[in-house]
Specification:
Elements (H helix, E strand, L loop, with lengths): L3 E6 L6 H10 L3 E6 L11 E4 L19 H11 L3 E5 L1 H8 L6 E3 L7 E9 L15 E8 L3 E3 L2 H9 L3 E5 L10 E5 L5 E4 L17 H12 L1 H6 L1
Parallel strand pairs: 1-2, 1-3, 3-4, 4-11
Antiparallel strand pairs: 5-8, 6-7, 6-9, 9-10, 10-11
Length: about 230
């Protein structure tokens, strides 16, 4: 069974093609989904919300995009147990839409950070991280100004206790609480992360650590019980 993915496109998205290409390289069928659509294409296994500067980051990063018509459909899809991946600005959109906890605020140094980031794998227990090994170190690029993950002590304790920290910075580049770089939803089917796995999914880019994220999703789709049971 082939992974069927939709990639949402907002005005200001600039990583939608990168995400679509990474998914296609993993064998997925990919359909772009414009932000004004009120329904998703039928039969999707995954919705990707890409990086970029949706709506110019006006008001607050991801705040306008989270209220786009398509995001109601994405929230309903997630509510039915669908898989959703939000990268960088996509992570901001998912938080603003209430699909993930916490907040993403200005980097602690108040500067845009663009560099490779060493990450520790927090958990292999999700469709997104199933091909990684707990605590191994991988590298994904980062490129953000508002990637400082903020959560109160109770929320952080819950994320840790439920094994929902997907990735953690080895050297915290933005001041994120607990070094959190990516988190999972309670049902483990929604992942948001600031680093860019799609920019680490081609040898020409100098790093292929992101390929396992997309390959894991594709492999899970090929064995539907693995995707449904994650």
């Amino acid at each position: 069974m082939t992974l069927r993915a939709g990639v949402v496109v907002f005005p200001g998205s600039n990583c939608d093609r990168d995400l679509a290409e990474a998914l296609r390289r993993a064998g997925a069928e990919v359909t772009p989904v414009w932000h004004k659509e009120t329904a998703l294409p039928p039969g999707l296994d995954l919705v990707g919300v890409p990086g970029g500067f949706s709506f110019g980051d006006y008001l607050r990063c991801g705040a306008i995009a989270a209220r786009a018509p398509v995001m109601r459909a994405v929230a309903e899809f997630a509510g039915r147990g669908g898989h959703v991946l939000g990268i960088c600005n996509g992570f901001q959109v998912l938080i603003e839409a209430g699909l993930l906890p916490g907040a993403l605020i200005r980097n602690a140094g108040l500067k845009f950070v663009c560099a490779p980031a060493a990450l520790g794998v927090g958990t292999p227990d999700s469709p997104f991280t199933r091909l990684y090994v707990r605590s191994e170190t991988i590298t994904f690029p980062i490129a953000h100004h508002d990637g400082n993950f903020l959560a109160d002590a109770e929320t952080l304790a819950r994320l840790e206790g439920e094994d929902r920290v997907a990735f953690r910075y080895r050297a915290n580049p933005n001041g994120s609480s607990g070094g959190v770089a990516g988190v999972l939803s309670a049902n483990r089917r929604v992942l948001g992360l600031m680093p860019h796995p799609e920019r680490a999914a081609d040898p020409a880019l100098g790093c292929v650590d992101g390929t396992r994220l997309f390959a894991g999703l594709a492999d899970a789709a090929a064995a539907p019980r693995a995707l449904e049971g994650a």
